[in-house]
């Protein structure tokens, strides 16, 4: 079982023929992901990496039944690419692009909120269901099939957590990199909720960072709904000075609940198994599942 993407997803790449789109689409195809084509305005009718190129997302939906897209469009045009995908009826919109202006994302998020679609990202590594579909930029070989879901604001910590879980003898159901920008589509709580509702995910790893309320919101929701599955949590940025943006655009301490210490305290109060170092994630997963 999986969430968001699987072997049956019909995936297109927006920004297909650009350097980033070409490289990562090639890696996705090599992994075995069902890439059915791509979109580059003005290059419709051509073939690229053995797949058809379309001028518009609407055309891709009509001709190859696309239902999932991954966006490698430059920042100035990426918000329009998200809106175009939503208008065309794409169900899962995974946006890798970093540096989309916040004002553009505010408009895009508002535009798609009443559409039947789910946005993941932007500024994220994507989503992978091991052995079925890699819709992103993550190193596929790190992820093995299993029953632990991962939701993370950090790309590299997603890979690190997966590697540790696999080395402990467990695998990953799906890993979702939600991105670290101030305005993102799928929140930590929403991603955790997907895993809680997935019958084959037995535990969840929740990786957050300083800034914002997403982890606190997720923790409180987990407690309110009865801690159905064990959750292992980590918050990056313990040593970050207040008021300084660290790494991601959204990783900035603004209020009393934005600090790593405050978030970890809230998570512990809500029954989450919090670790103080990312090096402890795998061991903690083995501990809670071993029980």
Give the topology, please:
Blueprint: E1 11-14, H1 19-31, E2 35-39, E3 47-48, E4 51-54, H2 57-64, E5 68-71, H3 75-88, E6 92-95, H4 102-112, E7 118-120, E8 126-129, E9 133-136, E10 145-152, H5 155-167, E11 172-177, H6 188-196, E12 203-209, H7 214-224, E13 231-236, H8 260-269, E14 273-274, H9 281-290
Parallel strand pairs: 1-2, 1-5, 2-4, 5-6, 6-7, 10-11, 10-12, 12-13, 13-14
Antiparallel strand pairs: 3-4, 8-9, 8-11
Helix pairs in contact: 2-3, 3-4, 5-9, 6-7
Structure description:
The chain is an alpha/beta fold. The protein folds into two domains: 11-120, Rossmann fold (3-Layer(aba) Sandwich), CATH 3.40.50.720; 138-290, Rossmann fold (3-Layer(aba) Sandwich). It is 34% helix and 22% strand. It has helices at 19-31, 57-64, 75-88, 102-112, 155-167, 188-196, 214-224, 260-269, 281-290, and strands at residues 11-14, 35-39, 47-48, 51-54, 68-71, 92-95, 118-120, 126-129, 133-136, 145-152, 172-177, 203-209, 231-236, 273-274. The strands form two sheets. A seven-stranded mixed sheet has the order 3-4-2-1-5-6-7, with helices on both faces. The protein has a seven-stranded mixed sheet with strand order 9-8-11-10-12-13-14, sandwiched between helices. Strand 10 (145-152), helix 5 and strand 11 (172-177) form a beta-alpha-beta unit. Helix 5 (155-167) packs across helix 9. The longest helix is centred in the first third of the chain and has 14 residues, at 75-88. The protein is globular. It starts with 10 loop residues before the first strand and ends with a helix.
